[in-house]
## 1
Amino acid sequence: MKIFSSGFYRMHSGMLIFLFGTILCYCFFINTLGSVPIWAFTVWNLMITLSLVSSPVIMGFFCLAALIYAIKSWQYVITQLSARNNEFLYHSISSFGKWQQFKSWFYVQFNIFLPLIVYALFAGIIGFNFGHYIIPIVILLYLLALIIVSVAIYVRHSNRLIDIDRQILLIRLLRNWNKSFFLLYTLFVFDKLKITYLITKAIAWMLIIGTFAVFSDIKDESAVPNLVVLMIVTAHSLLIYNEFRFNQKYLYFSRNFPYSMSKQFLGSLLNYAILMLPELLWFIGNFGIHSVSLLLQAFSILILFRSLLYWIGLSIKNYLIWIFVLFNLVFLIILYRITWLLPPVFVSTAYFIFQKNYLNKNLID
């Protein structure tokens, strides 16, 4: 409990306080605009909670958030198990029987999930009072299933011998292949950032479905695909940042390689083409020849996002601010139907920023 549960809360306390504090403040302190009957105040104040227990769509978003929360807990626990100062845990945990291990890990994971469980119980009580019974039960069963899956992962990991020579299947298959220099980040993603990649894909496809559902009544048929392009690129902004950080950390010496400036500038597109292959195939299959212009827009936004990092550096805060600004700018461009400006303007701007800051030696700091 001290190492895993308490440590998890210490590391993620800011996120939890912000998330649940915002929800609780909304439920109990929000005021409505205008005159509302006294009997309706409870319904208005509990609108988010009522939506959770009455709408399958909101329940789906909650389940996705719970899955992401579970994955973060898996990462934290496994990282702590692998820490050198916690190596004694492998001996002490494995000395118990599997059932005792299961109960102990269940207790730990239950405490990690306590904020979600408390809110799910609160939502269930509200739902029962307003006649919603099925979704609250489904949510609680889903959280129980996540806890059991988490416990199974912990038991398996804590009883597994550490093999320092273990390699994933992908590395074994590609070990003897000639690899392009510009594909090293893709291999790094499939080796070390698999969870980040899967979460990014889940968010991207949720945004695709949500955009078509929310903007289905727009008369301009080109607007929705353009919005989908913007959503997908923004969803992959973390992978873009990680690619820049990977190059700065592991491939900083590559600036001495005999690659032209334009090749260095466009080489990263090979990574993005493979990492976004599911979305590329979906665009081609659904939009045909029109997908060419959409893909040009997507890669122009991507390359600008990446080039900004050569100017900003590794400051994730400044990077996210610029992502927010560019997101709103592109959104306005889509509304005014001038998306044909994106490829020439964004690519030329990106190349100018890249050329001016490529040899900036302060970026590594």
## 2
Amino acid sequence: MTQPKAPPAFLALLDSYERYLVAEKNLSRYTLRNYRADLLDFARYFEEQEDVGPLEADRQSFRRYLATARDSGVVTASLIRKVSTVRNFFRFLSREGHLETNPLAGINAPKRERRLPTILIKEHLSALIEAGGEETPQGIRNRAILELMYAAGIRLSEVIGLDLRNLEPGERTLLVRGKGNKERMVLFGAPAERSLRRYLKEARPRLAVDDTPALFLNRAGQRLSGRSVQQIVRRHALRAGLDERVYPHLLRHSFATHLLDGGAELRVVQDLLGHASASTTQIYTHVTEEQSRRVYTQAFYNQVRLNARKHDDRDKKEK
């Protein structure tokens, strides 16, 4: 693949910025790759469409860059990430003395479109978990994964990163490593504990081929991949007769919403999810409100229809 053109001075500063992010922020290779792609895209635009280089960008030229990206079909979420990436890069350049001032300081990102997360109702979750039913090592493993992802509300990256030492079945606790390499302790209930104990006793020993520390193993005895977990969720959803767009993060959304429905405090849910800000968790309160509104509306119209039928029956008797 041909890399976007960028001046050598820009590439040298980009390399320096990446070293800083690795040393100070401990970012993953995936995140670094996205940052680099955004900054190279930014540099390419200025090299091809502006009269100044990327390091001479100002607010007006940067807005033209965003408008061009939007016109080419870049979605709002990606535009927001691009603004954040470029803005942080220029902040770094200014702080390190590579630029006298930061010309992009204070520039605003597009407003994020607010969409409520989708969730699964409890009946559908039960059907999803029960859909496998295979008495094979893989089937026992799959049930343990699904039970745990819903019971603990953990992310896909967190479940595949689990090691045996992270799990305390007797205490029903789990130490997970989340975004920003931050660790947190999460809890899970009796159904997940039973599934995990069965997996550890009956299935994992039959899958393991060496002393790998990974909790969940594939048929080759290696750490299970994120792609494999996605396929497990999709396969169980199809067997349960659910929409094929069921995906792992849906279990996390459902976990949070069901906790709030059950009366859990927002701060407790925030800690269990590992959210840095309560505003991120707040979105789930809107899901519960929307659900309550739908239930109320449905009940109201059901009562209206019932009353209408009663009136019709009464009119027929009077005739």
## 3
Amino acid sequence: MIKPGFTGSPLDRSDHIRNDPEQYNALLNDWRGRVLGLDGLDPKLASEGGLHWHSMAEISAEVELILLGMDQGKPHFVPIVENAGGEMRSMAVWRALTVLPPEDAAIYGTARSLIDWHNSHKYCGRCGGTTKPFRAGWGRKCGHCNTEHFPRTDPVVIMLAEFDGKVLVGRQPRFPAGNYSALAGFLEPGESIEEAVRREIFEEAGVRCGPVRYVTSQPWPFGGSQLMIACIAEAEGMELTLDTNELEDAKWVSKEEARAALDDAPDKVFSAPPPFAIANSLLKHWAWH
């Protein structure tokens, strides 16, 4: 069974509480409540491993909180912190994600997505008025025209093109040396998942594809809230014409080469994406099926 990163949160999102201000205020005064510890936008780690949680007594009453959900009767929150425009994904958060339990990474991913959304929606898209959080932090309302705004997720296709027992992987200049991953791109308006997969592979690598099969999906909290939709496409050939604005290099790899990369073998010909990235899950699915 595929378990992509940023999935498997133990928190009950408790949507009914978001629409009940009285019940939400009661949770804010519940001494059992926990507030996610952050260092800027990065997660603080507990000494015993996992996420660090503050008690409600440690949090100022002026801090705006988002209700992440409930676990064993205890409310869990995250503060809406200011994003000062720093790195989209710091080295600290990258290191944290390599050691966090999957369920903790899922909680952090939700929190990070919501914080970024609040920071980018302080003003109303309809009238330009100032917005304020409401619905337990799962929305913002304009103080001028009362328009309600809610978090959105941007769909992204991420895929392997397959031909004659091999799949296509590529690398961008920002990748660590030797790292290759699946190709990816945003869905455009009026486009199906299958159409987006075929378009992106052709635009980035010049490869025409036919049938597309869905594999799995994963939320991705960096650079906005995205839903990564992992697929495998049947390629019509192996000749490459790279868009060098998108890719520095691309190559076809066998299952043996993919397994060696995923196992970090000494004789690997490329380095695989990190385990919490869906490209890793997708490559594993293909390499062992």
## 4
Amino acid sequence: MKALTIGNLKARIPIIQGGMGVGISLSNLASAVANEGGIGVISAAGLGLLYKKLSPNYTEAGNLGLIEEIRRAREKAKGIIGVNIMVALSDFAELVKTSIAEKVDVIFSGAGLPLDLPSFLHKDSVTKLVPIVSSARAVRIICEKWQNNYGYLPDAVVLEGPKAGGHLGYKENQLEDQLFSLEELLPQVVHEVSLFEEKYHKSIPVIAAGGIYTGEDIRRMMELGASGVQLGTRFVTTTECDASEDFKMSYINAHEADIEIIKSPVGMPGRAIHSSFLEKVKAGIQQPKSCPFNCIKTCDISRSPYCIVLALYNAFRGNFEKGYAFAGSNAWRAKNIVSVKETIAELVAEWKAKELKFR
């Protein structure tokens, strides 16, 4: 596999571990992936709940928790560590400032267009900025805004297709439409990015994400122009994943029919594993009485069937009576819990097997 270069950062293997919240990808998983030559990513979502003992204030606890996770990852890893920060988070700005102050290697940002992300950088900042997009149009908007307003272009771009887990940047009727498949969109995004690369003489690698599960998948994306890939689901069923064993077993025990599209309180469709909690939601049994955290900008308590951060936190702990697991379209393919080292070795072996097949 060819190395992935983002500015002055060089990942030995072109694999980014996707940020997964609440609590699924923290310092343990991120550092394990980084140590294997990939890019490990901490999810900033919901840290105010995981670190509530540090402060009664949700936002402050989240920031303190993020500092803790970044520093833990740094202690464990020699490689590249990133943080995933959703634009939709109410404490987006605070989490970005914290990540930059802690000199995290990369910030990945999606669930909305991070149009002001470069505004948080300082002259001595070392953090690379990577937006997560779902179309060539989104790339163009971000590149034009960043260049015009800040004289800055993305250090890389992640194109997340409709087979990803969690929140999706597509309308529900687009999720099965081949016109919006990753294979269809990737060449469009690569072309759009190339226009800015040529004009401003800057390398902007495109990273493919969403439904990528095997080494063969990785090779296919690279052949379509991607410089690297992002995998989330494949890393959930690893020993180093920060989720509970019950959360991991929800993947192991899932059948293909259990992976469903849900309507999230965030205002986006999402992909998750069916649970008893989701059955209650569909039956109209779940309804929050108040919003204790105000964690999502777009969440309206009067219309929300449940508190999403609590639901994801409960799932992280293994309580599927009160939560559910986000998952990519291939989550049902997981059969065993293995180490990150074994997972990456298997991906590389699958890549090589595909290479030999075509020689």
